């Protein structure tokens, strides 16, 4: 097959499925070329405005010309310029100057490439967090509603994926919510810790701006402050090299990787519960689970989350390596890598949050299946309670223990060797030794008596910790999430 020509449609060339298949339009736009280069032009405008306000000979006409062309980007011209110059920033300086001939002489005045490059990255990272946080809050809210609804429903707990003491469906969900609340705090902290690079010059010394303002240090500091405020930041880094420290990228992707780990754990639990037929993710009327096996109801949304979460968790290795090999004030081997990993981390986090929201809004619980599994395992768990009841009725603890040990082994043989149901309670009923507590057996086997304080823990956790964290996001929480694919 011949390679497609330049005019080939979009289906004739590779497109990242993160954007073409999964990500939200708003996150896709945040990392788009139009957003990036439009922000570059705004940063050049902020710089010119601040320089003018501090006395440099820049006219109102030049400022107005720049303002009128912020989004008038000739991408074809910029691509041709970059091919000729082999420099992306200068290509866009020339392209901007072409539509702003009066302002051409003062565009990028005193700045280095990282003035637009790094500052734009910081703006986009900040705005990426601002897109993710309400989505994460929405997921927590949906799960909190689910936990509250099923706070009292007993279910078999698992440790080592082996039957353990009972818990409740709502309490198990609170374990998921607690991890996501930690992620919410981590994302907020990472966003709030971001600062602006500001106007620092080629190696971070601000030498070019000090020359522009004829040695006036106060004006250089004010220039830095003005541009920082115009870009929507409260603070700028006081020291930088040519770039802001690449440790910042490590911190950003670390919290996103941690979010990925949380979602992977949650969706793995959901997949295991689907296998047990206790709970399922939503399954649509016309959805096909398998092309070969029409009865299948595969947990494909949870599987998608796990698949993409693994990708998200691995991305943090990139900024770790990049930060470790930045020589002195900077090396350019960070650039191509960062173009990929920063965008992909936010796009992937966006996708798995949207998918998990969709899952959490359509959970299907099967109480009868849960009850049946409890009945299979509860007789063994109830043996300690039965021993205590016999002792209270005048029995000997050691004799009772031996009786139950023998009966338990017989019942286990029926389950494991014959494939039958657990008949331990029937064996206890049939043994005259246990006649003093025959009337208590039903109450001793009541599942809710084995869940401890699970229900109370759910109520307190949701009231005191989970729901208060959602208050800042109430007006931004999304509507019900429908997935295109």
TrEMBL record:
<dbReference type="GO" id="GO:0044209">
    <property type="term" value="P:AMP salvage"/>
</dbReference>
<dbReference type="InterPro" id="IPR000362">
    <property type="entry name" value="Fumarate_lyase_fam"/>
</dbReference>
<keyword id="KW-0658">Purine biosynthesis</keyword>
<dbReference type="GO" id="GO:0044208">
    <property type="term" value="P:'de novo' AMP biosynthetic process"/>
</dbReference>
<dbReference type="InterPro" id="IPR020557">
    <property type="entry name" value="Fumarate_lyase_CS"/>
</dbReference>
<comment type="function">
    <text>Catalyzes two non-sequential steps in de novo AMP synthesis: converts (S)-2-(5-amino-1-(5-phospho-D-ribosyl)imidazole-4-carboxamido)succinate (SAICAR) to fumarate plus 5-amino-1-(5-phospho-D-ribosyl)imidazole-4-carboxamide, and thereby also contributes to de novo IMP synthesis, and converts succinyladenosine monophosphate (SAMP) to AMP and fumarate.</text>
</comment>
<dbReference type="GO" id="GO:0004018">
    <property type="term" value="F:N6-(1,2-dicarboxyethyl)AMP AMP-lyase (fumarate-forming) activity"/>
</dbReference>
<comment type="similarity">
    <text>Belongs to the lyase 1 family. Adenylosuccinate lyase subfamily.</text>
</comment>
<dbReference type="GO" id="GO:0006189">
    <property type="term" value="P:'de novo' IMP biosynthetic process"/>
</dbReference>
<dbReference type="InterPro" id="IPR004769">
    <property type="entry name" value="Pur_lyase"/>
</dbReference>
<feature type="domain" description="Adenylosuccinate lyase C-terminal">
    <location>
        <begin position="378"/>
        <end position="462"/>
    </location>
</feature>
<dbReference type="GO" id="GO:0042802">
    <property type="term" value="F:identical protein binding"/>
</dbReference>
<dbReference type="InterPro" id="IPR008948">
    <property type="entry name" value="L-Aspartase-like"/>
</dbReference>
<dbReference type="Pfam" id="PF10397">
    <property type="entry name" value="ADSL_C"/>
</dbReference>
<dbReference type="Pfam" id="PF00206">
    <property type="entry name" value="Lyase_1"/>
</dbReference>
<protein>
    <recommendedName>
        <fullName>Adenylosuccinate lyase</fullName>
        <ecNumber>4.3.2.2</ecNumber>
    </recommendedName>
</protein>
<comment type="pathway">
    <text>Purine metabolism; IMP biosynthesis via de novo pathway; 5-amino-1-(5-phospho-D-ribosyl)imidazole-4-carboxamide from 5-amino-1-(5-phospho-D-ribosyl)imidazole-4-carboxylate: step 2/2.</text>
</comment>
<keyword id="KW-0456">Lyase</keyword>
<dbReference type="GO" id="GO:0006177">
    <property type="term" value="P:GMP biosynthetic process"/>
</dbReference>
<dbReference type="InterPro" id="IPR022761">
    <property type="entry name" value="Fumarate_lyase_N"/>
</dbReference>
<comment type="subunit">
    <text>Homotetramer. Residues from neighboring subunits contribute catalytic and substrate-binding residues to each active site.</text>
</comment>
<dbReference type="InterPro" id="IPR019468">
    <property type="entry name" value="AdenyloSucc_lyase_C"/>
</dbReference>
<dbReference type="GO" id="GO:0032991">
    <property type="term" value="C:protein-containing complex"/>
</dbReference>
<dbReference type="GO" id="GO:0070626">
    <property type="term" value="F:(S)-2-(5-amino-1-(5-phospho-D-ribosyl)imidazole-4-carboxamido) succinate lyase (fumarate-forming) activity"/>
</dbReference>
<comment type="pathway">
    <text>Purine metabolism; AMP biosynthesis via de novo pathway; AMP from IMP: step 2/2.</text>
</comment>
<dbReference type="GO" id="GO:0005829">
    <property type="term" value="C:cytosol"/>
</dbReference>
<dbReference type="GO" id="GO:0097294">
    <property type="term" value="P:'de novo' XMP biosynthetic process"/>
</dbReference>
